[in-house]
Write a structure and sequence with these properties.
It is a single chain. The protein is mostly helical. The protein is built from 15 helices and no strands. The two termini are 35 Å apart.
Length: 383
């Protein structure tokens, strides 16, 4: 169920608001939101709501277990096991066939094609990347002692399944909303801001993103060899605009819906296309994902203190893989890893001395190239 669909706007959302606001009891309101979230997720994929419930149960029990442990060694073993099981679920549904493709390629090259592995028909559950990362942040924060383990499974279930940020984020850390789940206020001011923010996001999606997408699809109907240089660049620019208005539009709608219901989510986009460097761009684009990898991968690996170059490339390899199971996403992640490495080691503060228009042109040039790499799963078509 998409936020921009008539079913969501005319039936689901009014029904949720009606049931939510006719009661003042916060526990009942949380129950309404949890039931609505599970229904929202089950609307398109009824069987995969079971997978979400498995994820909720897995992280709830591991969170309690880790929270009760006294031994650091056992806590480390438990959190490692929990992270592995979460990533195993994500890996099976998102990367199994990609792994089979790689394995078959290696077998074909080194074993003469013997023992070719079979692909499976596996549908990717909607939002699995987002809610898995949220669950991981909860368990890791319990291990770190940043938060207490949640004893109320319904609170944790609401956090993981909450429908406003389930499809396209932002990725919300548990310590940012745990207090709001148990104690929040819905005000007229918050409702007004939420409606305005949701409307902005809906306009971005319907008026801009969909229009750019239709043009991109129309251009892609023709053979790529007939596009020519100017049209090829126009295609890349249009997709650059499409993906921003689409993704930031969904984030705006999620933030707006959350505010209407009394939740405060952090910003996910801060005008990324006005950036003057690739480093600045990634401080402004998909902020919740960047901070997740910074807090749970980059810094634990050593950050800037130990093996910074290695850490940068690990983070960006994982960032590329997170976006999709295809070689172009891996190359897209490594593309940004190389650019950020160059900026951090060669340019450092030199970019600040270059005139702003030149920095802007440099940044947008590589961003547009990056989105072309992101768009084309066929690398020959990209070339």
């Amino acid at each position: 169920m998409l936020f921009s669909s008539l079913v969501f706007l005319w039936y689901f959302l009014p029904a949720v608001f009606l049931l939510y606001f006719i009661t003042k009891n916060l526990h009942i309101r949380n129950g309404v939101l949890l039931a609505a979230s599970l229904f929202f997720y089950a609307w398109g994929e009824p069987k995969y709501v079971i997978l979400m419930l498995v994820s909720i149960g897995l992280n709830y029990f591991f969170g309690l277990w880790i929270g009760r442990m006294q031994s650091k060694h056992r806590m480390r073993l438990a959190v490692t096991t929990c992270v592995f099981l979460n990533l195993l679920l994500l890996g099976y549904f998102k990367y199994f066939n990609f792994a089979v493709e790689i394995a078959n390629s290696l077998l074909s090259r080194f074993a003469g094609g013997a023992h070719t592995l079979s692909f499976r028909e596996i549908a990717l559950p909607v939002g699995i990347s987002f809610y898995t990362f949220q669950a991981l942040s909860y368990v890791v924060d319990v291990y770190r002692g940043t938060i207490q383990a949640q004893k109320n499974i319904f609170h944790l279930a609401l956090y993981i399944s909450f429908f406003p940020q389930l499809i396209a984020g932002p990725i919300v850390k548990y310590h940012d909303v745990c207090e709001q789940i148990g104690n929040r206020q819905c005000t007229a001011e918050g409702m007004a801001y939420g409606i305005k923010r949701f409307s902005y996001g809906l306009a971005k999606k319907m008026l801009f993103a969909n229009t750019f997408a239709a043009t991109v699809d129309w251009m892609m109907e023709k053979p790529l060899a007939q596009l020519g240089t100017v049209n090829a660049w126009m295609l890349a620019v249009l997709y650059t605009l499409q993906i921003y208005f689409d993704f930031s539009g969904y984030s705006d709608m999620a933030i707006g819906l959350g505010r209407m219901l009394g939740f405060h989510f952090g910003e996910n986009f801060e005008y990324p296309y006005i950036s003057r460097s690739i480093t600045e761009f990634w401080r402004r684009w998909h902020i919740s994902l960047s901070t997740f990898f910074r807090d749970y991968v980059y810094i634990p690996l050593g950050g800037n203190r130990y093996h910074a170059i290695r850490n940068i490339f690990i983070v960006w390899l994982l960032t590329g893989l997170w976006h999709g199971a295809s070689w172009n996403f891996i190359f897209w992640g490594l593309f940004y890893g190389v650019l950020l490495f160059i900026e951090k080691t060669l340019f450092k503060k030199k970019l600040q001395k270059i005139p702003a228009p030149i920095c802007y042109i440099y940044t947008m040039f590589f961003i547009i190239l990056g989105w072309a790499l992101f768009y084309f799963t066929d690398l020959n078509a990209l070339w």
